[in-house]
Amino acid sequence: MNIGEIARRAGVSRSTVSYALSGKRTVSDETRRRIQAIIDELDYRPNAAARALKEGRTRTLGLVIPPASLRLTDMQLGFVASVVEAAARADLDVLLSPSGGDHDRSFERVVTGRRVDGVILMEIRLEDTRVTRLQQAGLPFVTIGHTAHPHGTCWVDVDYATLIARCVHHLADLGHRHIALINRSPELVAAGYGPAQRALAGFTEAVTQRGLTGVDLCCGDDAAAGESCLEQLLDERPEITAIATLNEAALPGIERALERARICVPRDLSIAGVAARHWAEGFRPALTAADVPTEMGTHAVELLLERIATPDAPPRHLLLTPPISLRASTGPVPAR
Amino acid sequence: MNIGEIARRAGVSRSTVSYALSGKRTVSDETRRRIQAIIDELDYRPNAAARALKEGRTRTLGLVIPPASLRLTDMQLGFVASVVEAAARADLDVLLSPSGGDHDRSFERVVTGRRVDGVILMEIRLEDTRVTRLQQAGLPFVTIGHTAHPHGTCWVDVDYATLIARCVHHLADLGHRHIALINRSPELVAAGYGPAQRALAGFTEAVTQRGLTGVDLCCGDDAAAGESCLEQLLDERPEITAIATLNEAALPGIERALERARICVPRDLSIAGVAARHWAEGFRPALTAADVPTEMGTHAVELLLERIATPDAPPRHLLLTPPISLRASTGPVPAR
DNA sequence: TTGTATGCGTTATCAC
DNA sequence: GTGATAACGCATACAA
Questions:
Q1: DSSP for B218-245, written as a single string
Q2: Domain residues for A145?
C-alpha cells in the first residue's frame, strides 16, 4: 500500500493525498474526507524509508548501550526506559546499539549509515573513542556522564561529588567522625570511570573539610562483593560508624553482612548514599539517599532534540543534584 | 557522501560501485581496489533509508517491550539483552517499541510504517490484540510466551508447568509432604498471564500426583511483597516444609523473612524454583532452581529470521525446559 | 483548490 | 567488465 494507490482510489493526485496528510497546503473538506476514509479503510501509513530518504531525517534516535553481555545496573536500565518513553512522547523511535569496544559494527552502522537523527551515548569513559567518532561524523549526540574534556560536548550527569559530599556532611552533623566510602568496582575505578572518580573526590574533600577520618574502598557491583567488602571493613576498621556509598548493587550484600554481624542500623551504624529509589526503598531500614532521578533519560532526549534542531548552538550541560531523601538508615553516632 | 560521489571520484559508474560492494557482479581487481580505496578514505557507507526503500527490507527487527513505566524484571531484561546481541551478530539493528495498551502510537508506527522486517513481542497476554494486529498486517513476528491460541503463531517459551512440577517432584522425593507455591502477582494471575497460569497448573498436577498437600499464593513482584507473603505463609500454614516459586523478584524478601523468623534453609525449610541464574545465585543459600536460559532471545531471533525468509512455512514453536541446577536450598524434610 | 514533475540514494535490468 | 537508466515511495517546488 502506497500513496499512489490511495490517490488512485480517491480520484486525486498523489500530492493532494500527501498534503491532506501533512496539512501543509489547504485541501477542501470534501476531498480530505474522501481521502481520509480510504486511508482509514486500507490502514495506510507512509513508508518510513521513503519518507526518511526524501526528508533527510529518520525520526529515530540511537541509544548506545553497554554490551549486552554486561549486566545493566538498575540505574542504567531506568535510564534506558526513560529514554524510550521520552522518545515515544515525541513520536520518535529508538534504535538500540550495543557497543563497548572500539570496533563495533552496530555502532558504525548507526553512525555512518544515517540510520538515526542523533545519538545518546551511555556509560562513557573519561576518554571515549566513540565520542570522537561521533564528532567527526558530525552526528548530533548527547552523552550520559561526561568525558575528561566536557566543554565541547552536550551531556547530562549526576553530580556524584556533591551528593557524596552531602552524605558526608549529613553524617558529620550527626556526630560521626569515622566514615567509609564504598565505591564502585576496582575495575571501574582503575579505568577512570567518571562517577567513581568524582565520588571519591567529593568524599575526600568533605572529609578533609570536616576534619574526619575517612577510608575509601572499592567494591564489586553485586551482592556477594558487598557482603565480603563489608565484612572486611567491619573487621579491619571497627572504629567506622558511618558509611557513604554509590554502589547500589552491593546494598543487599551490605544488608546481609550487617544482619549477620548483628549490627543494627542506624543504632550502631549509619548509611547514606546515592542510589535508584528502588534500591534505597528495598534496603532495610530504608536508605537515606539521593535518589538518582529517573528523568535523566527525559533530559537527555530534550538536549538531543535541541542539538538536532540547532547543531551550531553552544553545547548545553545538565548536572543534576537531586535532594537527599531522609529515610531510616542514618542516626546519631552511638555513644561509646 | 553518497554512491554517486564515490563513483565520480573513482571514475566509474554508480552501478560499478554498487556491484563492487555487493559482489553480485564481477568487477576487475584493478577497479575494485580503486573504489575500495576511495570508500575507505571517505568512510562511505550506503544510506540505510535509500537501501531500505529499494530493497523493500530494513535490516531492522522490532522488539516490543512492556511500557517503560513498569519495571522490567531481570528475566525480561536478560531477554532484551540477548535479542539485541543475537540481532547484532546477524548484522541487524533493533528498534524498541514500548507498548502495553491496545492503542499505541509507537507500536502502530513500527507495524504499519514498514520500519522493521519482523517483530518480537514479549510479555504477551493469553488474549493479546497486538498478535491479531500483526497477523492482519502480515508482518512476520515471534512471541515470547504463547497466547491461548498458540497453533498459528511462532513462539518460544519456558515450560513453567513442567519446571514447577519438577520442583515439586524433587521436593517430594526429599520427603516433603506440605508444599507451597509462591506465584507471581495477583494482578498478573487475574489477567490470565500465561506463566503464572501454567505454573499453577503444573503445581496442582504434581501435588495431586504425589498425594501432597499444596497451597498456592500470589505475591507481588518485589522484595517487600515477598517478605510479607512469607510472613503470612509461616503464620498461617506452619506445616509447610517446602516452597516452590517462579517469582524471582520476591526472593530477597523471602530471604529476609526467613532470616528474621530464624528459619534455616534448607534445614528447616526447602526452596526450589525457576529464576534467572543471577537471582538464584544471589539467594542465601544458593537457590536450587531451573535457570531461565539467557538464550531465549537468541532463539527468538532465529525463529524470526526463519519466518522472514519463509513466511508461508508452518509456524515453529520452542518450549524450553532447562535442567534444574541443584544448589544449596533444598534438603530432606525436617524430622518433627 | 488541485495536478505535474523532480529528486532523495540505492539496487537491478538492460544494453554494450 | 562496465555504463546508462528505471524504479522504490514520498514530499515539495512549480504550474494551472
A1: ---SSHHHHHHHHHHHHHH-TT--EEEE
A2: 60-158+294-320
